[in-house]
Structure formats: C-alpha cells, structure tokens
Write a structure and sequence with these properties.
Helix content is 52%, strand content 10%. The chain has helices at residues 12-26, 32-47, 54-68, 79-95, 110-122, 165-173, 188-192, 201-215, 220-229, 232-245, and strands at 73-77, 100-103, 134-136, 146-148, 157-159, 177-181, 195-197. A five-stranded parallel β-sheet has the order 2-1-5-6-7, with helices on both faces. The chain has a two-stranded antiparallel sheet with strand order 3-4. Helix 4 links the parallel strand 1 and strand 2. Helix 1 packs across helix 4. It binds ligand PTJ. Ligand PTJ binds at residues 31, 33-34, 37-38, 40-41, 44, 78-80, 84, 105-107, 162, 164, 181-184, 187, 200-201. Residues 31, 33-34, 37-38, 40-41, 44, 78-80, 84, 105-107, 162, 164, 181-184, 187, 200-201 line the site of ligand PTJ.
C-alpha cells in the first residue's frame, strides 16, 4: 500500500501514517471524522517538531509506573488507534500481558466494532473486549459510555489515546486513573487526564513498551513514588511553552 511514497521523501513518516488511516477508512475501521481528528494531531506534531520531548518521556515513565502498579489496566481503542497503531499495540500487549484491550467507539456501529476486534486479534492481541456484556459509564450520553463488564467497567486504570474530553472527564469522575496520548496539550482530555503523554501515538507506544520492559521487576515502592511525584500540569505547561517557541 505504501510503494508510491519514496523513503527519501522528507515527510515519509507523516505520509505513511496518512496511508494507514486511509487504508483504515477503506477497511471499515476508521470513521470519516477520524481523518479530520488526525489532521488536527498532525498540525500539533508539526508545531512540536515531530519528535519525542523530555516532557513526554517523563509522562511515559509515570505511565509505566501506574500500569505496573494497577490492579486491572485496560487500553481503550478507537478507529484511529486501530488503523494507526495495531502493530505497536500488539507489541505493547505482548510485553505487558496484564493489559486488557477493549474497543470503544464514538461513532458506534456493531459492524465497525467487530471489524476492529478482528483486526486487532489478527495482529496477535488475544481476547479483545468490547462485544461482550456492557454497562454505562455514569455522566456520559455518547456511545462511548459503553464499558465491557470484563474490561473498562472493572478497571482501575484506563489508557485512552486520542480521546474526547467528555469521556475523559467521566472516567476521572468515576474514580479511575486515566492515561492519555494527545498531541494537543490544551485539549480537555490532556488537561483532565491523570497522565498525559504529549507525543504522536506511533512514536509514544514503542517508547512506552521499552519503558515497561525496563521497569519489569522494579520495586513497588519506587514505582508508587514515581507515579505519585508526577506533575501533569508541569508537563502540559512545558509542552505549551515548546509550541510557543515555534517549530525548529
Ligand atoms: O473511531 P471513533 O468513532 O471512536 O472516533 C475517534 C475520533 C478520533 C474521531 C474521536 O475520538 C475524535 O473526534 O477525537 P478528537 O476529539 O478530535 O480528539 C483527538 C485528539 O487526538 C486531538 O486533540 C488530536 O490533536 C489528537 N491526535 C490526533 N492524532 C493523533 C493525536 N494525538 C497523538 N497522536 C496522533 N496520531
């Protein structure tokens, strides 16, 4: 699918991600609105210099500590995440088997949900949730209120990249800890989450995987300390400052 994008092209990586999304749309994984959401992300990535900054690395370290010390962590997948990062997510789930994966959609349809579950299981992720018995997240009217009983409904930590603000707020209000990946440090999700990784999804997930592997076997006390001292407001302030400086 990518043969027409030469490796030498200065925007090779960015064009490749667009291809993944277009392919996702054609395969019935991604919503049409997902293309627009991606464009917004691209603009912020451009302003951030398209690289992983220190403030993102700090958030990744805190996220790893929170995931290792969680009772039941669940990763929530939408149509964009499925199309962009199925492979990266499979790597993460393999390195950190405690993580359950659940499909949760804003533009809900059973057909798309089933396609995404099949796509992720085809990537090697076992027992993808979302099609089972659900209950509603209080305070949310959109289709994203659905929580699989075996997944988000019983989770203490929910990882929700590329999230909409209402759901993030409702998850936090329900007492759950929320980790997000969002290139816009001013979004409501970024501001409300417990830990915000301001970085591009497909760069952040392999970095998180490496961090989880390096934290394997680390003492509980150290991990709890790391997640406790993490200052999300400071991370967001530094990301906004980086955007103000302009792309270099
Ligand atoms: O598949 P569905 O039906 O659940 O719909 C999913 C979308 C993405 C359409 C829906 O969740 C949505 O509209 O999201 P928003 O509210 O546009 O939020 C997406 C956020 O993610 C924005 O702040 C973007 O800047 C950011 N973003 C987009 N692409 C990336 C990203 N952040 C990191 N990496 C990206 N690749």
């Amino acid at each position: 699918m990518n043969e027409h994008i030469p490796k030498s092209h200065p925007r090779h990586r960015s064009l490749l991600l667009r291809e993944r999304l277009v392919h996702g749309l054609e395969a019935g994984l991604t919503s049409r609105a997902g293309l627009i959401a991606h464009g917004r992300g691209e603009a912020f990535d451009y302003l951030l210099g398209e690289r992983t900054h220190d403030f993102a690395r700090e958030a990744i370290a805190a996220a790893s500590a929170l995931l290792w010390t969680a009772r039941h962590p669940v990763f929530s997948v939408n149509g964009n995440v499925a199309a962009l990062a199925g492979e990266e997510l499979a790597g993460l789930a393999k390195a950190f088997p405690k993580l359950k994966v659940e499909v949760n959609l804003f533009h809900w349809s059973e057909d798309r949900l089933t396609r995404i579950v099949d796509h992720l299981e085809g990537q090697g992720i076992a027992d993808v949730l979302g099609l089972g018995e659900t209950e509603d997240l209080p305070g949310l009217e959109s289709a994203r209120r659905r929580m699989d009983r075996r997944g988000i409904a019983s989770a203490d930590v929910v990882f929700v990249p590329l999230e909409d603000g209402d759901r993030c707020e409702a998850l936090v209000a329900s007492g759950r800890k929320v980790i997000t990946i969002d290139l816009n440090p001013s979004s409501r999700t970024a501001q409300r989450a417990s830990i915000t990784i301001v970085d591009e999804l497909t760069r952040a997930l392999p970095a998180l995987q490496a961090q989880l592997v390096s934290d394997r076997g680390r003492g509980e006390e150290e991990l709890v300390w790391r997640r406790t001292i993490h200052d999300n407001a400071d991370v967001l302030r530094r990301a906004i400052e980086r955007i103000r400086q302009g792309a270099v």
